[in-house]
Amino acid sequence: MKRIGVFTSGGDAPGMNAGIRAVVRTAAGLGVEVVGIRRGYAGMIEGEFVPLGPRDVANIIQRGGTILLTARSKAFLSEEGRAKAAEKLAEAGIQGLVAVGGDGTFRGAERLIEEHRIPVVGIPGTIDNDLYGTDYTIGFDTAVNTALDAIDRIRDTAASHERVFFIEVMGRFAGFIALEVGIAGGAEVIALPEVPVSPQEIADTITESFKKGKRSSIIVVAEGAYPGGAQALFKAVHGLTGFEARVTVLGHIQRGGSPTAKDRVLASRLGAAATRTLIEGTSGVMIGEVEGEITLTPLHDAVSKKKPINLELVDLARSLAG
Ligand code: ADP
Question: What pairs with residue 38 in β-bridges?
Fold first, then answer.
């Protein structure tokens, strides 16, 4: 391979830039040119290509978001759209791709491989940590620490005013963020899509904690743990008990920000390994890190198999909430 492309796609995640930097510098070390594809699959279809040399990726390792921009592309969902993207790649002499994104991005990559024989290696870039084949995704650690910082601040107010707070964190289908910040933030209750908690259970927990002398509580709710999220869950609990509480939805503040050291190291490692794997001739895999080791997982497994939540942590959270 003489020239490869790198792109970021789907939701942005802190650490994507560290991944791009690792791809560019690893390829340069192997004598392979890198082209940056802007705006994910949308830019691929439009031929939005920029050459990236080692100096072009200086001073980005600490930046959140993605210097290549990201987008969602409807056109890429059609065969014609993907054919156009393949044509643009061929015109630019791009012989393989490193894709940084989540499950949608990898589903698109699978189509490119099948329909146009373009080699693709993926690295998991999403704050949700919901990909099978890696213990952590790039951006998760930063998102957890950002949410935790917000919860610590809210707890000061909850304690001072003797209030209950419902705090909604990201996670429509997976509760990884909620579970980690819930434990680290000392939440009384953690509601996850995988392990939902009923309004009655929450009401009982709050009643119990009042009996034990607690005057403030933090309830961490993953977006997808209850229809309508934390606001609706609070309303249901209020309907049962009349308890007052405040609801805070953390929303997009969880997505951005300077990546933590852990995310920078993970992205550097995965970006470098993906580039070597692609150039050595392997395609259709996601590079992950499992128990500290670099692993290769078929893209198909990464998107179709479900990564289970750690039930031991769920029990731990319950046992420490008292
Ligand atoms: P993420 O990669 O973060 O999961 P999305 O689900 O938005 O983000 O996917 C990113 C892009 O990947 C979509 O905008 C679309 O262009 C492409 N994509 C997603 N699913 C498919 C699919 N089944 N086939 C082809 N392309 C897809």
Answer: none
- Ligand 1 centre from 100 Cα, in Å? 12
pLDDT higher than 90, residue 132: yes
**Cβ of 76 below 6 Å from ligand 1:** yes
Which residue in 12, 103, 128, 130 is the catalytic one?
Answer: 128
Q: Whose CA is nearest to atom 12 of ligand 1?
A: 105
128 in active site: yes
Closest by CA position to 278, among listed 23, 55, 35: 23
Query: What atom in ligand 1 is closest to the CA of residue 75?
Result: 16
Among the listed residues 262, 312, 269, the one whose alpha carbon sits nearest the alpha carbon of residue 289: 269
Looking at ligand 1, which atom is closest to the CA of residue 76? 16
Angle of helix 229-241 versus helix 199-211 axis, rounded to 10: 60
DSSP state of 134: -
Nearest to 86 by CA among 39, 119, 118: 118
pLDDT at 322 over 80: no
Burial 248-272 (b: 16+ CB within 10 A, else e): bbbeeebbbbebbebbbebbbbbbb
Domains of the chain: 3-139+259-304 (3.40.50.450), 143-255 (3.40.50.460)
> What's the rounded mean pLDDT across residues 85-111?
98
Q: Confirm whether pTM is higher than 0.85.
A: yes
* Per-residue confidence (pLDDT) for residue 14, from 0 to 100: 98
Q: CA 130, CA 136: separation in Å to the nearest integer?
A: 8
Q: What are phi and psi of 20, to 5 degrees?
A: -60, -45
Helical packing angle, 261-279 and 16-29, nearest 10°: 40
Rg (CA), the chain: 22
